Amino acid sequence: MKGLDQSRPLSLYIHVPFCTRKCDYCAFYSIPLSAAEPGWIDRYVSMILAEIGALSEEWGKPFHTIFIGGGNPGILGYANLRRILEKAEENGMPEEVTVEINPENITPELQGLSDVLTRVSVGIQSMDDEVLRRLGRNASRADNIRALELLSSMPFRWNADIITAVPGESIGRTLKDIEEVASYNPGHISFYCLAFEEGTPLIARETPVGEEAEAEFLEKGWQRLRELGYEHYEVSNFAKSGERCLHNLVYWNLGQYIGFGPGSEGSVGYSTVTSMRDTPEIGRFLSSPELECTPLSSAETEEEFLLVSLRTSDGIRKSGYRERFGRDFDSVYGGQIASIPDGCFTDSPEAFALTEKGFMMLDWIILHLAMGM
């Protein structure tokens, strides 16, 4: 595969484009089952198995991590998920294998995948039925509780998603969501503001709470998560000791990963990378999938590196930057860093990283630094 660096780890992302019904805020590519043609799921699974088989033969060793996301991968059923994971693990077991599953699809039979699966991510979003209704979720509070009870009794590491700043929601409601979900002891919690995307039913009927209100929701939520023992290791992600998501760290370190499935993305290489996107639409994917490859220049690779690395509390290791780009970080960015507001970052001979105050200004800081390249 063009651009693939055999000397570095490789991760695999698999996009399952099917769902029961699209949530009202969802702008990701997915197909409600009511719009799927007969046989599409079987054909999709067969195509994914073929793509994985070809890549596994070329790679010849275990993938570093695997992540199956959606859509709603639970739509495929546990038997098909097993087929996909067994194919992806033919060269050996990765360090981490995650599957996203909606609460309504989590059943006791999930535990039967414990030999091929190490981690589960569940989209709780809220524990309040009214908030779930506003979001257009399929799951209810009762579904969420049942899923949380099951996951807390299973041998998997697991993550729960929580959405905040939903119109009509109070900060107190968000804090109750955090506390109730945390009571089931997930090792990892993803916590982020509701995004209003063009073309979604949500944006047609609701009004965002506004930037100042969003900042308050985040600040109070971040504080509560820290008090509950979760480390704020990435803008939208919190983990207990040893529970960081290894697959997402690949993205944030601009590591190598390949995505299979309609619209999925990939990135391979090191000092310069090749960006990849799989066939964007399910019909075309099922007839003739093709990875569209776009080589990035060194400058474009560095911009992408800034964009992802500064999302984490670890930030940028200066020795790693020099190894990757052949330049001294302080010489390149020192002037720009001097004009970033106090309290937004930490800077040492070893690393440059953003604080929570800096996370609030992430987009501005990245653009500001990019001006110094």
Q: Assign the structural class, choosing from mainly alpha, mainly beta, alpha/beta, alpha+beta, or little secondary structure.
A: alpha/beta
Helix content class: 25-40%
Shape: globular
Largest sheet: 9 strands, mixed
Low-confidence stretches: none
Detailed description of the structure:
The chain has 2 domains: 10-249, tm_1862 like domain (pyruvate-formate lyase- activating enzyme, Alpha-Beta Horseshoe); 297-373, Arc Repressor Mutant, subunit A (Orthogonal Bundle), CATH 1.10.10.920. β9 (231-234) and β10 (237-239) form a beta hairpin. The protein has 14 helices and 17 strands. The strands form 4 sheets. The protein has a 9-stranded mixed sheet with strand order 9-10-8-7-6-5-4-1-11, sandwiched between helices. The protein has a 3-stranded antiparallel sheet with strand order 12-13-14, with no helix packed on it. A 3-stranded antiparallel sheet has the order 15-17-16. The two termini are 30 Å apart. The chain has 373 residues and is of the alpha/beta class. α1 (40-59) packs parallel to α2. The model has no long low-confidence stretch (mean pLDDT 96). Helices cover 37% and strands 21% of the residues. The chain has helices spanning 40-59, 78-88, 129-135, 141-152, 171-182, 201-205, 211-227, 246-252, 282-287, 298-309, 318-325, 329-337, 356-359, 362-370; strands at residues 10-16, 18-19, 31-32, 65-70, 96-100, 119-125, 157-164, 188-193, 231-234, 237-239, 256-260, 265-269, 273-277, 292-295, 316-317, 345-347, 351-354.
